[in-house]
Amino acid sequence: MTELKTTIPKGSLVLVTGATSYVASHIIKQFLERGYKVRSTVRNISDASWVATEAFKSYADTGDFELVEVADFGAEHAFDGAVKRVSAIVHVATVIGFSPDPNEVIPLTVAVATSIMLAALKEPSVKQFVYTSSCAAAAYPESEKIHVDQDSWNEKAVELAWTPPPYGPFQGFVVYFASKVAAEKAVWKIVEEKKPHFTTNVVSPGTVLGEPIHPNYVRSTGSWVPQLFRGETANLGLPATIVVDVKDIALVHVAAVLDPEVKNARLQVWGRHASWNDLLAILRKLRPQHQFVVDFPDAPYLGLSTDETKVIALLKKWGNQDGWRPLRETLAENIIFEKD
To answer: What is the domain partition of the chain in residue ranges?
Structure first.
């Protein structure tokens, strides 16, 4: 097979923020498996030591993987040290607490994205920058039919996020959506005004499911299927959503860094429309001996659509993969740490 042309050669150092992140873990893994060195940030290096001593121990032992601490990741100059000598940056770390108070989430999320972009501008070694956004930055997740393109923004979430209390049950999600809108817009504003010396791309996932590569990575959306498996339904997300495998998301991030033809792109990586009942039906076949919760009340699928032709082509080009990973495999891998 012909070796693909890449923006940076194998052996280059890639910075991936948020080493304890479920999504970041797979991005780290795929870069390491392709022969790149990875530096990754954590808020507290003592608390996150398991990432290097367990999850990526073999790579840490050879010096191909390292952790660096960025305690206050929203502070000015927070990433100045972390970006030194890196060829590419994949910024995954964000504020995920689902607080309903926009003042606790939105300004900090923007500050983090701005801080690392400004740090990259001062580091001449940086050739590629990829920001992890969300499909919810482009459109509000509802049943109304909406087609998303390069110029779509979720202005509805921005408006609703600043609604005064008392807050509704999904306000934490709304604030998260709005934070991704504000942060991604801040990234593109810097691109427009500062004309960086590096290429910038954005990857916008749907709801990410699939394999946790270590028990400590059963978090964020990666914990939703295990919760569903255990019958813990109180904190699940929307009853119908768009689901995508974490390995597909990681592969698109890798492609967004390495592919010379991907420039200034907003890559919507959504996968499939599905409801919790769809996932339950597959889980029941995977573990027929397990006692599952009864089906939820029927929920309409989201009305969102987008053109994912370019993303599907990237999966083929960089992973020799025909479309999305099968949902059955995604769910089977998502519950590898669950016992009947």
So the answer is: 13-334
